[in-house]
Amino acid sequence: MNTLEIKNDLLRLMVETNDQDLLNKVRRYFKFLKNEPINQSEIEKQEFAMIDLGLQQIEKGEVISHKDARNKINEMLGINRS
Prior knowledge:
Layout: H1 3-15, H2 20-33, H3 45-59, H4 66-77
C-alpha cells in the first residue's frame, strides 16, 4: 500500500465506527507515536492507576532492564531474535 491508500484505509476505519472509546485510544496512540503532547485530561483513570503502580514498583526496586523486558515480551510472542 502506498501512503495515500493507507491514509484512506485509516480514514475509512475511523468513519465506520461510532465507538468513542476506540477512537480516543487510537487518537492518543497516534499522538504518542508522533511525540505530540497528551493532556492530563486525556489520560484515563485506569492509566493513572497503572502509572501509580509502576511508580510504586520502582520505589520497591521491582524493576528489570529494558533489554530483559523486550526479551520476555519476544518470548511470550514467540519471536526469536538472534
